[in-house]
Fold this protein.
Amino acid sequence: MAKGYWIARVDVRDPEGYKAYVAAAKPAFEAHGAKFLARGGEFAALEGTARNRNVVIEFDSVETARACYESDDYQKAKAIRQTVAEAEMIIIEGYDG
């Protein structure tokens, strides 16, 4: 079964408030076996419009990735994030070929 990934591109407006989102999201990520592959590190914008924070999270499957996003724990965290940051997020199936 192919892995599932969250890819998030985020502009943080309130860094202190964003810390509250990170703390609130932690239970959802732990419950769904999230593995952070990239989390706000240095990046090079090669094409298009960049955001100031980029995150890639691996899950065992697309279904698990979606279940994490739809969980009550993550929805509570999302409500915080939406007040302190602007984001684009997708779930994508990994290549297992």
